[in-house]
Amino acid sequence: MEEMDVQQLGENIVKVLKTIYDPEIPVDIYELGLIYDVFVNETSDVKILMTLTSPNCPVAETLPMEVEEKIKSIDEVKGVEVELTFDPPWSQDLMSEEAKLELGML
C-alpha cells in the first residue's frame, strides 16, 4: 500500500468518525475530542484510541462497538481495534472550536 493510500484511508476514517454522535451532545465524537488517535498500517489494519466523556457514560458499551462497526464498513479496512482509555481523561479543552461554537461555549 502506498503512503498516499494510508493517508487517504485515514481521511476516510475521519469522515466516518464524524458521522458518529455522542447521544447526549449534538456534536460528533471527532469534534468532541473523543478520538485520541487513529493508526493505519500498510496492511490496512486500523487502531483507534478513544475515550468517553466519562467512565460512567451510558454508551460506554455501545459507542466503541459502533465505531468499530462503522470503520469496518470501509472497503479498504482489513481489521479494526478500538481501544478505550481514560488517560488522559476527557475534558472540554479537547473539543474543537466548531464543537464549542455548536454548544454555545464560545
From TrEMBL:
It comes from the Bacteria. InterPro entries: Fe-S_Maturation_MIP18, FSCA_dom_sf, MIP18-like, SUF_FeS_clus_asmbl-assoc. Residues 11-83 form the MIP18 family-like domain. SUPFAM superfamilies: Fe-S cluster assembly (FSCA) domain-like. NCBIfam families: SUF_assoc. This is FeS assembly SUF system protein. It comes from Myroides indicus.
